[in-house]
Specification:
Layout: H1 4-17, H2 25-43, H3 56-68, H4 76-86, H5 92-97, H6 99-114, H7 120-139, H8 145-149, H9 151-162, H10 169-188, H11 193-207, H12 215-227, H13 235-243, H14 250-264, H15 272-289, H16 295-315, H17 317-334, H18 339-354, H19 376-389, H20 397-413, H21 416-433, H22 435-441, H23 457-463, H24 475-493, H25 500-515, H26 517-522, H27 527-542, H28 550-568, H29 571-579, H30 581-596, H31 598-607, H32 612-626, H33 632-649, H34 655-671, H35 677-692, H36 698-714, H37 716-720, H38 724-734, H39 744-756, H40 763-766, H41 768-779, H42 785-801, H43 805-813, H44 821-838, H45 842-856, H46 864-880, H47 883-886, H48 890-898, H49 908-922, H50 924-928, H51 936-955, H52 970-975, E1 986-989, E2 995-998, H53 1008-1028, E3 1042-1044, E4 1061-1063, E5 1085-1086, E6 1092-1094, E7 1126-1127, H54 1131-1137, H55 1142-1165, H56 1205-1212
Parallel strand pairs: 3-4
Antiparallel strand pairs: 1-2, 5-6, 6-7
Length: 1237
């Protein structure tokens, strides 16, 4: 019975034999050889064998016999491939006994492959198969010294080594791969046998290398760089390799360094003495041998010594500490070389520092880096990194001094790159060491006429930067070091001895100092001890009218200290903040009351760029944050006082009172998250009258809804729990008629919270949905995007709570019977969104056909907004319904859509997308039968586009050219034309019968709204420009439109004419896209440069011009030249290639004469033309003139409208000429009478 191995070999041969049906000749040949070997093995199979499969030994013997036969030379390639697969499964004793014969056979085959008579391509493949056979054979043997010392194995290895110097890269690569595989196998078993055989050969190649003989070494290097980590041991080759750097040949040096780097990066298994010796050799000899002009070699060298030091530090820290100063010195030297070397050197230094290979005692060695000005962008951040590793070490202080010095030198020299690098580095130091250590190393000093030296203003900028918030700090230091500086600046500003400019600068320094207050609060470690005193000064500073900007800084600092204490879980800081509630909260409330005064608000607005609304927002936000650390009793007493003021304010009306109400409601909103149950009920009762009534301003109502929304978010159970739900629903439905437009978004969010609190399927609770759904649907048409989003969210929440989907659809369909088109359109949009969201559910799929049939009836409407919504719903249904469900309604869908495919209210792009989807599902002919005859051209265009896409798909190997599956937002889907597969171009039939392809009609999903507004803007601009320009002109400018009529001549060779063509029939008014009876069957074409290709009657002589390609891509060629479309080129090209007919030349001359006469007439009729001199420039006063030249020009209001403005400017061109090179008003004589205005 055969073993599993024997069966495996037989299966391999059988698999190769079954590939004879393939078209590849090499596969067919291999299959034939495999079948022949299998047949030979079957013939030698004993009749008494119980298995029909020959053994692996039989296959090995048959292959060996075939290879030894000279007549098998044409099949050596296939036989060697099969041998490589058979040897690993053959008995070891059989392979060992036949090893000499196999070595002899392989040597003879190598000789045949190297003979000149053999073709290059076959010998190449044969040598690669030979290398694979050697690898398979030697790999199957024991990896011992006895194996590799045997003559047969030595001969096989020699075959591989001979291929190392082959001129063919593929052969060398195959030999390298085979020998690397053997070396990996030997190294995995811990046997140095193969390494001992290879090292002498590799050392011989290295020693034989000279400046004139480097090719053998370069052939060996790809193998050596991978083999060096596998050699056991690698030491004997390191010294010869390093000696090659003395040749100073960049290719050789680079390969040597790369090979050694691969050795060091292979792992930490190298012995420490070997690594130390290698590093010492690199530092002593190699550095002087590097080519100075080759940054690649220098970068490799830097990486090599860095990797060696990192490896030595992990194996022998003591040895690494002794040698690291030399390494650091060398790396510092390389930081002054070039840009690439600096980047590599600093990266390696940073890597060594992160591996703790840079002790604090080595920091002075890096001080020289700060002097490399050209490398500041790289070295200064590294110095900051080193300082951050040892911020408290005395050796790190000089590094910080060097950074400050670099910043000062950059200021003096004006080097922006160095200034930016030094500032970023010092910001890193500030975040790590803190402001106290930072200012201790670089204290702020004064200057003559300024409390703070202007050269040190960047320090204040760093202290108030957001990065400083992460630095450890103390409020005591802020109070003792920075606040005195602020007082000093304030005293200098008010001293009376400083100039106005100096006083303003000093006031700005006060603001800069306080701007650092939030950063100190965020990282403060002494809140309990120092915050009470600092808070008193900060709150007092808020009331200083001379510095309105202090309020924002102080509020931001208070919020920062509270957030730091609460989020960090600092109980001591929280208790300290809570003990100050009686001082901080009343002060903040007083600020709100002071800012509520309109006079004070106006004064604040005029004194600073910060508005009173911004200040109020900052204070109320601070109150909300500080409420987190206050006691419930204290908040309750404060809230009662606010409620008293709120109730008193509701008794009166007026703008001033509305402003007061708004501020009080802001206070209630700030305190809402921390209120108890009783306070919540009181606040709800107080807010309801403001929401239900419109007696107060819109802002008051909006704030009321905002407060109510905050209560829903934080106290939902207290409002809608139990009996509160019914009262809340009644209140919201009762206030429907008084809601202001600006409050819709907040109201919808409140409704959403109420709906989400309903019990699913509870009819008594869900009865509120039909009451408010009309309001929600109308909000879907709101101009505010946030309101629309809130409306959709509320609608979907209703759908979830209304268990019966059919019932919910009926509620929405009730909007179809509304009296206004606006409401009917909103109902369609609501239905579209629900179907879009639940299309995959069975409850929606079953009613979708009836919903579509009902919606199709709306195409009889005349309101554009209803039709637009209906088209969007149809688009969603076509994508959601199965082909079987949609097929009976295809006719109705197409009939309804095509009613709106013409005229100014058309939705051509969206309709075309729907038609394409229908064609994809049901075929062109099925959809075409429902399309009106006048729109068959559109279907033809869709068919051609589909065929073009199919050809592109086939050309790309069956891959889809453009995706058609929509993924995105609901509103973007309704508004976008992204699925238009013809590149956002729409087929149009003009009044002249030409079929045009409009460009740019499609919109991307991301830019749908932006492009819509841009398109409307461009449309209005084009209309105004077209009305101001004359259509009789033969040339057009950028943005003009030219109306082409029959019987008129135009300069069609003008380069800008092709962009501004408009065709119109004289017998029709306006521009419509309905198809003409005599229209041709060709589409408008554009060449590959985007130029227009127009058919005409002008002949083109032979030898001139080129014919345009067929844009419909049918592959048909026209027989005659006069039937082809003529390609319009630019004027320069036309002058060289196109010979224009005489008729065109005459027409052009006629147009020039007409234009000249028109200009004369216009000039004679221009205002003030009678004052023009006929003999010279300037104006003259003739006899009988009562008025001076241009003393009076009649004004006409109609002449200066947007439409007529261009014509008036043209008239005045006869009066004032544009300035030339000589300046305005200068003629040849440099003088003349100036015209009076």
């Amino acid at each position: 019975m055969d073993s599993p191995t024997d069966t495996t070999v037989h299966n391999i041969f059988q698999a190769f034999s079954l590939t004879s049906h393939q078209k590849d000749p090499s596969r067919i040949k291999l299959a034939a050889v495999s079948a022949a070997i299998t047949e030979t093995c079957l013939e030698t199979l004993p009749a008494s064998s119980s298995s029909p499969a020959p053994s692996a030994a039989a296959y090995f013997a048959a292959l060996l016999s075939s290879l030894s036969s000279p007549s098998s030379s044409p099949h050596f390639l296939d036989l060697l491939k099969l041998l490589s697969l058979t040897v690993p499964h053959s008995p070891l004793s059989l392979v060992t006994s036949n090893l000499p014969a196999l070595a002899k056979i392989l040597s003879s085959i190598a000789g045949i492959a190297s003979s000149p008579a053999d073709p290059a391509d076959s010998s190449n493949a044969l040598l690669r198969s030979l290398a694979a056979a050697v690898e398979a054979t030697v790999s199957s043997l024991p990896q011992t010294r006895a194996t590799y010392s045997s003559p047969a194995v030595t001969a096989m290895l020699k075959l591989l080594l001979l291929q190392f110097d082959d001129r063919r890269p593929k052969v060398r690569k195959a030999a390298h791969s085979s020998l690397l595989s053997l070396l990996s196998r030997s190294a995995s078993e811990g046997s140095p046998a193969l390494s001992e055989r290879l090292c002498p050969y590799l050392a011989q190649v290295v020693e034989a290398t000279s400046a004139d003989n480097t090719l053998p070494l370069l052939h060996v290097f790809p193998f050596l760089s991978q083999a060096l980590p596998l050699l056991l041991p690698p030491g004997p080759l390191v010294a010869p390799l390093l000696s090659l750097t003395a040749l100073k040949l960049p290719p050789v040096t680079s390969q040597v360094l790369s090979s050694l780097l691969s050795l060091l990066e292979s792992g930490p298994d190298l012995p420490a003495p070997f690594t130390a010796s290698l590093l010492a050799t690199l530092l002593k000899t190699t550095s002087s041998h590097l080519p100075k002009a080759d940054p690649a070699c220098q970068s490799s060298y830097v990486r090599l010594i860095s990797a060696a030091l990192a490896l030595l530090s992990s194996a022998d820290p003591a040895s690494a500490a002794r040698i690291s100063p030399a390494v650091f010195h060398l790396l510092v030297v390389y930081c002054s070389q070039g840009t690439e070397t600096v980047a590599v050197a600093t990266a390696e230094l940073r890597k060594l520092a992160s591996l703790s290979c840079v002790p604090a005692s080595s920091l002075p060695a890096f001080r020289k880096l700060a002097s490399f000005t050209a490398s500041h962008a790289t070295v200064l951040p590294f110095l900051a990194f080193l300082y951050c590793l040892h911020p408290s070490s005395p050796e790190a202080a000089p590094l910080l001094a060097d950074l400050f010095s670099a910043r000062s030198q950059a200021d003096a020299s004006g080097n922006k790159a160095s200034k930016t690098a030094a500032t970023d580095a010092l910001s890193q130091v500030l975040a790590a060491a803190g402001p106290e250590a930072f200012l201790a190393a670089h204290p702020l000093r004064s200057a003559p006429g300024a409390p703070v030296d202007p050269a040190q203003l960047w320090v204040l900028d760093l202290l108030k930067a957001p990065a400083a918030a992460a630095a450890p700090s103390t409020l005591a230091f802020f109070a003792s070091a920075l606040l005195p500086l602020a007082r000093k600046c304030d005293a200098h500003a008010n001293s009376g001895t400083s100039t106005a400019l100096e006083a303003n600068a000093s006031r700005q320094r006060v603001l800069d100092v306080w701007a650092a207050f939030p950063q100190f609060c965020a990282g403060a470690k002494d809140v309990g001890e120092s915050f009470p005193g600092v808070a008193k000064m900060a709150l007092k500073a808020c009331t200083d009218k001379r510095y309105p900007g202090l309020l924002l800084s102080v509020c931001s600092g208070i919020r920062a200290v509270v957030d730091s204490a609460v989020e960090g879980g600092d109980e001591e800081a929280t208790a300290a903040l809570c003990s100050l509630e009686a001082k901080v909260m009343p002060a903040l409330f007083n600020l709100v009351e002071a800012l509520s005064d309109p006079a004070a608000a106006d004064a604040a607005d005029t004194q600073s760029n910060i508005s009173a609304a911004q200040k109020l927002s900052a204070v109320t936000t601070t109150i909300a944050v500080y409420s987190k650390v206050c006691t419930a009793g204290f908040l309750g007493s404060l809230f009662k006082k606010v409620m008293q003021k709120l109730l008193l304010a509701t008794q009166t009306q007026g703008p001033e009172n509305d402003a007061k109400l708004t501020n009080l409601l802001d206070l209630c909103h700030a305190m809402a998250p921390t209120l108890d149950g009783g306070s919540v009920s009181l606040l709800v009762r107080a807010v309801k009258p403001m929401i239900r009534s419109d007696a107060h301003g819109a802002l008051v109502q909006k704030r009321g809804y905002k407060v109510l929304l905050s209560l829903f978010e934080h106290h939902s159970a207290a409002i809608v729990g139990g009996e509160g739900l019914e009262a809340t629903c009644e209140f919201l439905t009762g206030s429907m008629m008084t809601v202001h437009v600006s409050a819709r978004n907040m109201r919808l969010q409140c409704l959403t919270h109420v709906v989400k609190s309903l019990e699913t399927g509870n009819k008594e609770q869900t009865d509120i949905i039909p009451t408010v759904i009309g309001e929600v649907m109308l909000c879907l048409k709101d101009s505010n995007k946030k309101t629309r989003e809130s409306g959709y969210e509320c609608l979907l929440a209703m759908c979830e709570k209304r268990a019966d989907m059919n019932d919910f659809y009926q509620i929405i369909l009730g909007g179809y019977a509304a009296q206004t088109p606006h409401m009917r359109s909103a109902a369609v949009m609501a239905l579209s969104r629900v179907v879009f969201e639940y299309a995959r559910e069975d409850s929606t799929a079953t009613v979708l056909p009836s919903l579509l049939k009902t919606t199709l009836m709306l195409f009889r409407e005349k309101a554009r907004e209803v039709i637009k919504s209906a088209v969007g719903f149809v688009r969603i249904c076509v994508a959601a319904m199965t082909p079987e469900e949609l097929q009976p309604l295809v006719g109705d869908v197409v009939e309804g859509l095509m009613k709106w495919n013409h005229g100014k209210d058309r939705f051509r792009a969206k309709i075309k997308i729907i038609l394409k989807k229908l064609v994809m599902r049901y075929g062109f002919e099925h959809v075409k039968q429902f399309v009106p005859k006048e729109d068959e051209r559109l279907m033809t265009h869709i068919r051609k586009i589909a065929e073009r896409q199919q050809r592109k798909k086939e050309k790309n190997g069956g891959q889809t050219v453009r995706g058609s599956v929509y993924e995105g937002d609901f509103e973007d889907m309704l508004d976008s034309d992204e699925e238009d597969s013809d590149g956002a171009r729409t087929l149009m039939t003009g009044m002249t019968g030409f079929t045009q392809m409009t460009a740019g009609s499609g919109k991307s999903l991301k830019n749908a709204a932006v492009e819509k507004s841009e398109r409307q803007s461009m449309k209005s601009k084009a209309e105004s420009m077209a009305s101001a320009k004359s259509s009789k002109s033969g040339k057009v400018g950028e943005g003009d439109g030219v109306l082409v009529r029959e019987g008129q001549d135009y300069d069609m060779l003008d380069a800008s004419m092709a962009k501004n063509l408009k065709y119109q029939d004289e017998n029709r008014r306006g521009y419509n896209e309905d198809e003409s009876d005599d229209s041709d069957d060709e589409m408008m074409e554009f060449d590959d440069k985007g130029r227009l290709v127009v058919g005409g009657e002008w002949g083109v002589e032979e030898g001139f011009g080129e014919t345009a390609g067929d844009s419909d891509e049918d592959g048909k060629e026209h027989a005659k030249l006069n039937k082809k479309m003529t390609q319009f080129m630019s004027a320069a090209e036309d002058a060289k290639e196109i010979k224009r007919p005489m008729k065109y030349e005459k027409a052009q001359e006629k147009m020039k004469e007409q234009d000249k006469k028109r200009r004369k007439t216009d000039a004679a009729n221009a205002p003030g033309a009678k004052f023009k001199s006929k003999k010279a420039g300037g104006d003259v006063r003739k006899k009988g003139d009562k008025l001076e030249p241009y003393a009076y020009i009649p004004l006409d209001g109609k002449a200066y409208t947007k439409k007529m403005r261009g014509g008036e400017v043209e008239k005045m061109s006869h009066v004032v000429k544009r300035a030339g090179k000589g300046g305005a008003g200068k003629g040849k004589g440099g003088g003349g009478n100036k015209r009076k205005r």
